[in-house]
Design goal:
Elements (H helix, E strand, L loop, with lengths): L4 E12 L2 E12 L3 E5 L6 H9 L6 E6 L2 E2 L4 H7 E4 L11 H9 L8 H7 L15 H13 L5 E5 L7 H16 L3 E5 L3 H7 L2 E6 L2 E6 L1 H8 L3 E6 L6 H5 L4 E7 L2 E6 L2 H13 L6 E7 L2 H9 L6
Helix pairs in contact: 3-4, 8-11
Length: about 300
């Protein structure tokens, strides 16, 4: 086992009857990195994570976590990992401090409760019953409970789902602080901006396979040399019409939202204006931007991640 790997997955397979949810995948998470696992619903990412965490038994392959066999040494693994789930039972009548103390009591190694509270920004709600917490505060407490044993490896499953933009960015700061303390983080998220901002590398899963694995910038560069022109049209023209505009390499039409990828933006803009003058195309809210991870995901899977 190489020392730099926090997670090493080899030929992992998990089946549910006739369905192969995870289909012979291999990947490695380096120590100290934030690693994103992305995929549309049903891609197999949750099953993959649950196998690594020891919550599900795989049907094939091997998993090593922090140098230990994740199946044979599961008790030792659990002492050194922290898991934040999308839904966590938070004992509604217990105060924040009491819940953190309770979870900390399950471990031989633990952080001081005050340190966990400060790290996750819960100082002002420390005596509040968990039933009185806002959605963002509950998410922070869920992350706090994943940190009580000072884990070396932390699993964050959609940690910012349902949060307002400010609460989401506050939680990003927590994740960056954890990485600065040499923690390794495996993150699943439905927010492409979040993945671009936080992840050192990203694996994209679809239909039980890993179909791409690279840094966010490299994923964009490998899939798009073009710029994106994005606009809205209540009556979009045909896909063929958009593809035939000068400079356009790809066109995506989803309801009233149109995105074309162009190697020659001035020529493409001239083509769009010509269609407008011919009353073939009417558009609003036009913007020109670089391709993003969202574009990559749509190209690779044929779906937007939140579909």
């Amino acid at each position: 086992m190489e020392n730099h790997a926090a997670i090493q997955v080899q030929q992992l397979v998990k089946r549910y009857g006739a369905l192969t949810a995870v289909d012979d995948i291999s990947f490695e998470v380096k120590r100290g990195e934030v690693f994103g696992l992305l995929g549309p619903n049903g891609a197999g990412k949750t099953t993959t994570v649950e196998c690594i965490e020891g919550l599900r038994a795989p049907d094939g392959g091997t998993i090593h976590v922090l140098g230990m066999d994740a199946r044979r040494e599961l008790k030792l693994v659990k002492e050194r990992i922290g898991i934040q789930l999308q839904t966590t039972g938070l004992y509604p009548k217990l105060a924040v401090r009491e819940v953190i103390d309770l979870f900390a009591s399950f471990y031989a190694r633990r952080l001081p409760t005050d340190a966990v509270i400060e790290m996750t920004g819960l100082q002002e709600r420390v005596h509040a019953p968990t039933k009185d917490l806002s959605g963002g505060q509950k998410q922070r407490l869920s992350v706090a409970l994943a940190l009580v044993n000072d884990p070396d490896l932390i699993f964050l499953d959609e940690p910012t789902t349902g949060l307002d933009p400010q609460a989401r960015r506050n939680l990003w700061d927590v994740i960056r602080e954890l990485q600065a303390r040499d923690k390794t983080i495996l993150l699943t998220t439905h927010y492409m901006e979040e993945a671009e901002q936080l992840c050192d590398r990203i694996a994209v899963m679809d239909h039980g396979k890993i179909i791409a694995l690279e840094t966010p910038d490299a994923l964009v560069r490998q899939n798009f040399q073009e710029q994106a022109i994005e606009f809205e049209s209540l009556q979009p023209p045909s896909h063929e019409t958009m593809q035939n505009i000068a400079g356009v390499t790809r066109a995506q039409i989803q309801d009233t939202q149109i995105t074309v990828f162009s190697t020659d933006v001035p020529a493409t803009m001239a083509g769009l204006l010509a269609l407008s003058q011919q009353n073939i195309l009417h558009f609003d809210n036009l913007v020109v931007r670089r391709a993003t991870l969202e574009d990559v995901f749509l190209k690779l899977t044929g779906r937007r991640i939140r579909e």
